[in-house]
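Progress against Task 2.4 (sequence-to-structure conversion) is shown through the following example record, which the project officer requested during the mid-term review.
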Amino acid sequence: MLLLRITMLEGRSAEQKAELARALSAAAAEAFGVPLAEVRLIIQEVPPTHWTVGGQSMAELRRNEPAGGGQAS
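Structure tokens generated for the chain above:
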């Protein structure tokens, strides 16, 4: 059995997370030569108030971001 753990900021759609899970699971199965059925994947989502960069939460950074600025992660 192979277990992948993904930690990301909240906010992505169920479809995006499903596609990520499919792609990473397939890549891991191929890279390690294990059946796809043996790959497990856990996605942990973190609220922007609990994810910090340089001492500031992502919520703060996003509030201070100029319009049209991209998503930092």
